[in-house]
User: Fold this.
Amino acid sequence: MGMNLQNISDKKKSLRKTAIQERELTSKYKRDKFATKLVNISHHYLSDGAIIAGYYPIKTELDIMPLMKHLSIVGHKILLPCITDSKILEFRDWDINKAILTQNIYAIPEPIEGQLLIPDYVYVPALLYDKNKYRLGYGGGFYDATIDYYRKNFSTKFIGVCYPANIKNNIYHEKHDQKVDFVIDLGKKYIID
Assistant:
């Protein structure tokens, strides 16, 4: 007999709590090491001059700011997500060295000026990923709604990033949960595609 939706929802809540606790135990040294490793691995999947959306890391999320700075230096346009009432994220052009950020209602910094663009690639944070490319986020549904919308309307690719310890064999998912196109596994130096 299958698991009902309430059981899955409860399991996901429990996984979120555990993942947050485990991530908070990761030392700053290890977090910085993985942020540097993310910059230094091959990003052969990116086309020249691509429009790339990152995210502004909160709490102990994998810090992709060094990667965003590097990608900007080598000629890519960098965007950051902005929340909307529809839960479909908009992506705003962001000059890492100049742009002013403001905190949204979730206290996540986002640009207040800059052109809205459609990204070629989006780096997607998560508490957990699995080998099937499903993600477990904080439960707000923003990335699920965004991935679903962009897949139907654009050719944007979604790239999962997190610490190696946060990649599991399987995580519970529901019908609305969206897969990313691939996940970067910083522990094994390969991409799960």
